[in-house]
């Protein structure tokens, strides 16, 4: 079985696991994200942007962070490129993948960021992330400047793989992850 086939099977396993999460579990992940950010950022200081994501089905919703922090959302471009655009709660439009995102005129570069918080279908003990397979985050992080920004996965504990996930050459380990049970950064 090749890596693509293994990842396909893993995605099915963790999509099923994620569908079993209660709203309470999801809320507790969101609380731990806030606990982590409050520990990292001092109140009243001007911080750089935090890259967050627009939640798709069964992903933890962390969009309320925009009320406390400067946040940016990703936008998928036609050429399979991912850009981040500042977002302060204004109306969003659909990007090339049909995901809500700010307009590209608010594009930010890597120098504007303190960290990225990204959704995970699963993660393993080597911090290898399993996503939906589009490769957008890995492609972004191929650039060393983006790779130097802490990138933390957000997911529920039932999606932390006890086994190592299939890893392709382009898979870049994350800096850590946050679940309802633990903060590993």
Topology overview:
Elements: H1 3-19, H2 23-40, E1 49-51, E2 71-76, E3 82-87, E4 93-94, E5 100-101, E6 107-108, E7 113-119, E8 122-123, E9 129-130, H3 136-140, H4 144-147, E10 151-154, E11 176-178, E12 183-184
Parallel strand pairs: 1-2, 1-7, 7-10, 10-11
Antiparallel strand pairs: 2-3, 3-6, 4-5, 8-9, 11-12
Protein architecture, described:
- By secondary structure, the chain is of the alpha/beta class.
- Helix content is 24%, strand content 22%.
- The chain is built from 4 helices and 12 strands.
- The protein has an 8-stranded mixed beta sheet with strand order 6-3-2-1-7-10-11-12.
- It starts with a helix and ends with a strand.
- The model has no long low-confidence stretch (mean pLDDT 93).
Which terms summarize this structure?
185 residues; alpha/beta; Rossmann fold; eight-stranded mixed sheet; two-stranded antiparallel ribbon; 4 helices; 24% helix
Number of strands: 12
Multimeric organization:
single chain
Tell me the CATH topology. Answer: Rossmann fold
First-last Cα distance: 32 Å
CATH architecture: 3-Layer(aba) Sandwich
Beta-strand residue percentage: 15-25%
Strand order of the largest sheet: 6-3-2-1-7-10-11-12
Q: What is the typical, i.e. mean, pLDDT?
A: 93
What is the class in the CATH system?
Answer: Alpha Beta
Helix content range: 10-25%
**What series of H and E elements makes up the topology?**
HHEEEEEEEEEHHEEE
What's the CATH H-level superfamily name?
A: NagB/RpiA/CoA transferase-like
- Which geometry do the CA atoms define? globular
**Total number of domains:** 1
């Amino acid at each position: 079985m090749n890596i693509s086939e293994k990842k396909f099977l893993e995605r099915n396993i963790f999509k099923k696991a994620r569908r079993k999460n209660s709203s309470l579990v999801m809320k507790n992940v969101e609380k731990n994200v806030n606990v982590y950010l409050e520990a990292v950022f001092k109140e009243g200081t001007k911080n750089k942007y935090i890259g967050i994501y627009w939640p798709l089905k069964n992903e933890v919703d962390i969009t309320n962070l925009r009320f406390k922090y400067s946040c940016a959302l990703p936008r998928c471009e036609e050429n399979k490129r991912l850009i981040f655009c500042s977002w302060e709660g204004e109306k969003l439009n659909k990007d090339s993948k049909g995901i809500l995102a700010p307009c590209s005129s608010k594009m930010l570069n890597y120098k504007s960021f303190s960290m990225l918080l990204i959704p995970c279908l699963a993660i393993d003990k080597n911090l290898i992330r399993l996503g939906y397979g589009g490769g957008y985050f890995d492609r972004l992080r191929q650039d060393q400047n983006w790779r130097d920004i802490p990138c933390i996965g957000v997911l529920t504990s039932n999606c932390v793989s006890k086994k190592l996930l299939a890893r392709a050459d382009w898979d870049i380990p994350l800096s850590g992850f946050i679940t309802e049970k633990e903060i590993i950064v």
